[in-house]
Amino acid sequence: MSFAYGKADDAEAIGVIHRALERGVTLLDTAEVYGPHTNEELVGKAIRGRRDGVVVATKFGFAIDANAPTTKKNEGQDETANPYVRYYAKLPRALEPHAKKIFGLTIKPDRLQQIRNERRPDSRYSSAAQVAFEVRAAESLLERHGIPMIDATEVSIEEISSRILDRTGIERRLRP
Fold first, then answer.
1. Is 103 exposed, middle or buried (0-12, 13-18, 19+ CB in 10 A)?
2. Residue 153 neighbours by CB under 8 Å, 6+ apart
3. Beta pairing, strands 62-64 & 85-87
4. Rounded mean pLDDT of the chain?
5. Can you tell me the distance from the alpha carbon of 154 to that of 156, in angstroms, rounded to the nearest whole number?
6. Which one of 5, 56, 74, 91 has the lowest number of neighbouring Cβ atoms within 10 Å?
7. Contacts of 125 (CB under 8 A, 6+ apart)
8. Is the dihedral of CA 102, 79, 156, 23 positive or negative?
9. Is 161 part of any domain?
10. Is residue 69 part of a domain?
């Protein structure tokens, strides 16, 4: 709502999120790279006062120079070659107090490599070494913080949700 679709009107975007919540949506997916950070801030405003009824999924692990706009020159490059993005080796400070509520999703390196090869064949981005490094780094980060992981290689979003509910003991809520 705040990155890929151009300039967004915050009031309209918050209204869309409110309508989704009213219709029973309980999972909001975002990432710090959408903005950077502005989409997560928008989601935070939208769920203020409703936080207990919403699961927020986010992707993190990038250091972003918000003053460096994406250009055609760097748009198609591997993330590792982009001078404006570098990987963090630690959990973002804002997430540390919530580490007990976080679940990490991981993927088998060969499947991630297959996906990346479809997007950018024969690139460093899709190389076995790069993929193995990134998966190891992500899993290591989660392990260091005691964050449980779910291998999402061959499971549906429904199965992922069920596994999280089972592990946390959260009661399933069914709509009448």
1. middle
2. 106, 107, 108, 111
3. antiparallel
4. 76
5. 7
6. 5
7. 78, 79, 80, 116, 119
8. positive
9. yes
10. no
Burial class (CB in 10 A: 0-12, 13-18, 19+), 113: buried
Q: Does the structure show a pLDDT above 50 at 94?
A: yes
Please say if the pLDDT value at position 30 is more than 60. Answer: yes
Helix (H) or strand (E) holding 28: strand 27-31
Phi, psi dihedral angles at 59 (to 5 degrees)? -110, 140
Count: domains in the chain:
1
CA distance 142 to 103: 9
Torsion (CA) 135, 69, 67, 92 in degrees, nearest 10: -20
116 located within any domain: yes
Residue 36: which of 58, 65, 12, 16 has the closest Cα?
A: 65
CA–chain centroid gap for 173, Å, is 24
Q: How far apart are CA 159 and CA 152, in angstroms?
A: 9
Domain presence at residue 65: no
Q: Which domain holds residue 120?
A: 93-176
Q: pLDDT (tens digit, 9 = 90+) per residue, 109-147?
A: 999 999 989 988 888 888 898 888 888 888 888 888 888
What is the value of pTM for the model shown?
0.54
Residue for token digits 């992707």? Answer: 59
